[in-house]
Amino acid sequence: MDRLLRGAALGALTLAACAAAAPASAQSYNRLVVFGDSLSDNGNLFALTGQPPAPYFQGRFSNGPVWTELLGLNAARVGGAVSGSINYAYGGAQTGTQPLPPGMRLQLANYTAAGGRFGSSDLVTVWGGANNIFGSLAAAGASPSPTTVMAGVAATAAADIAAITDTIAAGGAGTVLVVNIPVISPTPQFRGTPAAPLADFAASQLNTALQTNLTTVAAARSGTNIILMDVAKVGPTIANNPGLFGLTNVTAPCFNGVSVCSSPGTFFYYDGVHPTARGHQLLAALATDYLYYGDAGSVTSLLTETGYRHRERRAGEALAGLTGREAAPAGAVLSGGYSYETAEIDARGSIGAADSEGHGVRMALEGGLDGGWSFGLSGAFDKAEVEAGRLTFDVESYSLDAAAAWRSDSGLFVAGGFGAARDAYDEIRRVTALAPIVHESEVNGLSYSARVVAGTWFERSGMAISPRVGLDWVSSRTDVFAEDGPAAAYRWEERTFETVSVEVALRVEGELAPGIGAFVEGGWREALDDGGDPVRTGILANPARVLGREVEDPYGSQAMIETGVTGRLTDRLAVEVGYRGRFGDGSNSQLGGVTLKLAL
């Protein structure tokens, strides 16, 4: 029977407790159609033959529902309405046109003969091939060249599955999830037997051929998203670390043919090759990681958004010293500062709420020239830790800014600057739908900015008041990168988050006491465009399409406030302590810092 499939389930168990129905998502499926064998059979063989009997659960080859029943779409058995979700899988089925139990090619033919069709919102699952291997091992072992025989069996099964997938895609199905074959030797029925190495060889051959064949089909059927769910890759993770997934036994069957173990939830195998209900839950979790990669992957928009926020802030600071109440002195001023920032970004679509906490240091050299001109050159380092539900990452930004300003005798000023930063995103950790499995990655990026500010200063009642307007262009980009891990390994294409924004503000400066000053600035910032690219996510080494997701700009509209005090410590040394806040519908950020300035 489906012993190999049981091994596949082991791989899926690795994916831990996300076993319930697939979450609501923009990447949704309205109908489920199932073709396969005992790992997908929801009772079709039982309705036909009475097998398997109790203590198997209601005709399933397990002690509970199978994984396809946990995807959030209730599929009827054969004989149900083909216009709704329907399951045509039979325990013991091979991939061809065998009459009993119906092979998978015959399952598809029977479905279409009953009037079944495929639509763009359909999810179709295809999983088989194990029974082809099981049914050929004895004859192959007695032949002069067992591996040659099993290679042919594997090639035929892979060709059948590819042909089934091609027909489904040609019929207009939106998504086809094809599952490969796990390593067979760890299953109780094969563990330590002479047939185990040959079975593993056949499974490897089938998987290699299936990968190649499906890639070809996907290229020809671009209207259908063909996803290969790799259960073979995940098996060793759970087999080597069962305790992480609440398991105590991954080698013996819970049901030995006579009695059932007392704790089925801690066993991976229910019989010699089939998973327990717990195993099927984890298979469903693994499927979720593959099926919803477009939505799950969109959370990485936070990378470029964090680089953008760092760059936007440092671009503003590069001009702040050149647009204050006092014109830059004829000499030069060297300054150094430390800042601490927190940020909260609201949930958007499939992206949950995020929190950022970080700090930075900045050094700047500023000075005045004849004719009302002044200059500034600064460098900064920023580090932040971002948490966004299942995604966490660190980012380090190394930036450089150059600025210049002109000021008239009447107080009118114009300032401009350009800056760039290298962003290093490290320890990117995504908790997969198969928690506690975590995938890790890292990527580099570049951020650029250009900023122009114009305004004027005038005195009123001992205070200096400056209305001003600014225009910003900020762009942050990440390179192509991919995860490393045993579940669905996501791969992201290059992405740029870029906006042009305008701001208006009013700044007031004054003296509180001799040598002690204060300032406050309030204003509004509005993005003139939302230039963020879609987040484009694929699955590494997989025929699945790259899916793009539009992401709302969290910084589109913001109220701005800055305030602080300044003090002169000596004739040449001054200190500034300040606060900055940005508050909008999509995000809030707050920053506190201290800066020392030394006249050279």
Describe the structure.
The chain contains 11 helices and 24 strands. It is an alpha+beta fold. It is elongated. The model is unreliable at 1-26 (pLDDT under 50).
Beta-strand content = 35-45%
What is the strand tally? Answer: 24
Order of strands across the main sheet: 8-9-10-11-12-13-15-18-19-22-23-24
Indicate the structural class.
alpha+beta
Query: What characteristic shape results from the CA principal axes?
Result: elongated
For the biggest sheet, the summary is:
12 strands, antiparallel, barrel
* Total of helices: 11
Overall pLDDT level: 93
Termini Cα gap: 84 Å
Radius of gyration: 31 Å
Question: Helicity range of the residues?
Answer: 10-25%
Ranges where pLDDT stays below 50 over 5 or more residues in a row are: 1-26
Features:
600 residues, alpha+beta, five-stranded parallel sheet, twelve-stranded antiparallel barrel, 24 strands
Tell me the layout of helices and strands:
Layout: H1 3-13, E1 31-36, H2 44-49, E2 86-87, H3 104-113, E3 122-127, H4 130-134, H5 137-141, H6 146-170, E4 175-179, H7 196-220, E5 225-229, H8 231-240, E6 249-253, E7 267-269, H9 277-291, H10 293-297, H11 301-320, E8 332-345, E9 354-368, E10 373-388, E11 391-407, E12 413-431, E13 438-455, E14 458-460, E15 463-478, E16 481-482, E17 490-492, E18 495-513, E19 516-527, E20 535-539, E21 547-549, E22 557-568, E23 573-584, E24 587-599
Parallel strand pairs: 1-2, 1-3, 3-4, 4-5, 6-7
Antiparallel strand pairs: 8-9, 8-24, 9-10, 10-11, 11-12, 12-13, 13-15, 14-15, 15-18, 16-17, 17-20, 18-19, 19-22, 20-21, 22-23, 23-24
Helix pairs in contact: 1-8, 1-9, 6-7
